[in-house]
Design goal:
Shape: flat
Region (Disordered): 1-62
Largest sheet: 2 strands, antiparallel
Oligomer: single chain
Pfam families: Enkurin (PF13864)
Mean pLDDT: 82
Order of helices and strands: HHEEHEHHE
Low-confidence stretches: none
GO cellular component, one term: axonemal microtubule
Helix content: 40-55%
Structural class: mainly alpha
Domain Enkurin: 133-225
Distance between the termini: 130 Å
Strand order of the largest sheet: 1-2
Protein name: ENKUR protein
Number of strands: 4
Strand content: under 5%
Length: 227
């Protein structure tokens, strides 16, 4: 049979790159020393040892300067002090109470709202400055608006209707409304043809437009008309 020429080389190839004791470990292991036994808290940081006095000399504290004066604590007589404060002080004003039950239950009158303390203020009944300022601003804005309206009216050359013309137009509109309303009331009840329905819708639109014009003229006393 066939035998390869590199057979012997292939047998020794794995042993060539294999490290000694790779899987089983070394044959001899060093025995640990009995001095390296496990101690309590070996991983905690240790403080540096205290330094001894240099050359056996003791470090004395610094002396205070000549201008230093120690604080002398004087005992106070709080009893006499409180007595003098009570004698020389102003007497307390009596507080107003209100009793609302027969058992003597009472409460302070001032915060209850029954004591008239607000009407005794100096500024009682005086209009606040913010309200006065706001009214002045509103009045100024109204004047500016009226001035701008007049200017626009002058530019557009609009003419104001007189009271007599306004009254005549209003009477004419009301008369026209009465005529159309009379015609609307005379319509038949049944609107079975296209002409009847269209005629009824036209009368309703005219009535609505006249009512709108009459309400607008009655609401505004001054009416302007453009040329």
């Amino acid at each position: 049979r066939y035998i390869s020429k590199v057979r012997e080389l292939a047998k020794h190839e794995p042993e060539k790159n294999k490290t000694q004791w790779k899987t089983m470990g070394p044959t001899k292991v060093a025995v640990p020393s009995p001095n390296d036994f496990l101690q309590k808290r070996p991983k905690e940081p240790k403080l540096a040892p205290k330094k001894k006095e240099q050359d056996g000399k003791r470090l004395l504290p610094l002396l205070p300067p000549r201008t230093y004066h120690p604080v002398i604590h004087i005992k106070k007589n709080f009893i006499n002090k409180n007595a003098v404060a009570v004698i020389t002080g102003e007497p307390k004003k009596p507080r107003h109470f209100c009793v609302d039950t027969r058992h003597g239950d009472k409460y302070l009158l001032e915060p209850s709202g029954l004591f008239p303390k607000y009407i005794k203020k100096k500024n009682y009944g005086v209009t606040p400055k913010c309200v006065t300022r706001r009214k002045e601003e509103m009045k100024r804005e109204e004047e500016e608006y009226q001035a701008s309206v007049l200017e626009q009216l002058k530019k557009k050359a609009m003419k104001a209707l007189s009271e007599e013309e306004r009254t005549n137009i209003l009477k004419a509109l009301k008369k026209k409304w009465e005529e159309i309303n009379r015609a609307y009331q005379c319509l038949p009840v049944v609107t079975d043809t296209m002409y009847k329905r269209m005629h009824k819708e036209e009368l309703e639109l005219e009535l609505k437009q006249l009512e709108h014009d009459i309400a607008a003229i009655e609401k505004h006393k001054t009416i302007y008309i453009a040329d």
